[in-house]
């Protein structure tokens, strides 16, 4: 019973959270990785098998390359941030929903997907967008390539970790959210001091 709970619920949940967090950094990296995994035999439910077919694989691969490249172009990266949060939220929800195949009720599956997957992706995407805006304001956009490079690395590492050992991806996500929270508190504290 315990082993069944882990394999049917906990591991898929960890995988979904890891991929959703990755979508917060780069929308298409985890989607392409899931498509690639499904193409090579990763088990998805029948209605999501199309994710691994050639058209989906090629489309998501091209979208991934374009997204990564575009984030290295000054000012275009800020423009992308204006649509990244809603897109990341949708991608995070989808990724979590697709991976939670062991949940019996579709309503519970998608409510969990929206809250945990979409929420995680939105938090990370919103925070990175704020970080890029701060980088643009302080460096005129010149330092943004470092932010973009870090985000791409984070998305790739989280995605790979999610597939190799999903519980570790969950730990990474919790650490990232905690660090973002500490950073937010620090920035908020500075703003309060400036106002007083």
From TrEMBL:
This is DUF4126 domain-containing protein. The keyword Transmembrane helix applies. Pfam families: DUF4126. Keywords: Membrane, Transmembrane, Transmembrane helix. Residues 14-186 form the DUF4126 domain. The chain crosses the membrane at residues 9-34, 54-76, 83-101, 107-129, 141-158, 164-184. The keyword Membrane applies.
């Amino acid at each position: 019973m315990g082993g069944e709970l882990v394999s049917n619920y906990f591991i898929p949940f960890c995988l979904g959270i890891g991929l959703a967090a990755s979508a917060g950094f780069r929308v298409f990296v985890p989607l392409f990785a899931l498509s690639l995994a499904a193409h090579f035999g990763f088990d998805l439910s029948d209605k999501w098998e199309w994710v691994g077919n050639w058209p989906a694989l090629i489309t998501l691969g091209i979208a991934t390359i374009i997204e990564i490249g575009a984030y290295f172009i000054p000012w275009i990266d800020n423009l992308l941030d204006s649509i990244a949060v809603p897109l990341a939220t949708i991608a995070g929800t989808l990724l979590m929903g697709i991976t939670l195949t062991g949940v019996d009720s579709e309503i519970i599956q998608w409510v969990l997907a929206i809250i945990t997957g979409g929420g995680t992706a939105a938090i990370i995407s919103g925070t990175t967008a704020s970080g890029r805006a701060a980088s643009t304001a302080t460096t005129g956009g010149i330092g943004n390539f470092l932010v973009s490079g870090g985000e791409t690395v984070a998305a790739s590492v989280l995605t790979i970790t999610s597939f190799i050992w999903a519980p570790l991806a969950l730990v990474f996500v919790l650490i990232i959210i905690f660090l973002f929270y500490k950073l937010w508190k620090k920035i908020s504290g500075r703003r309060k001091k400036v106002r007083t």
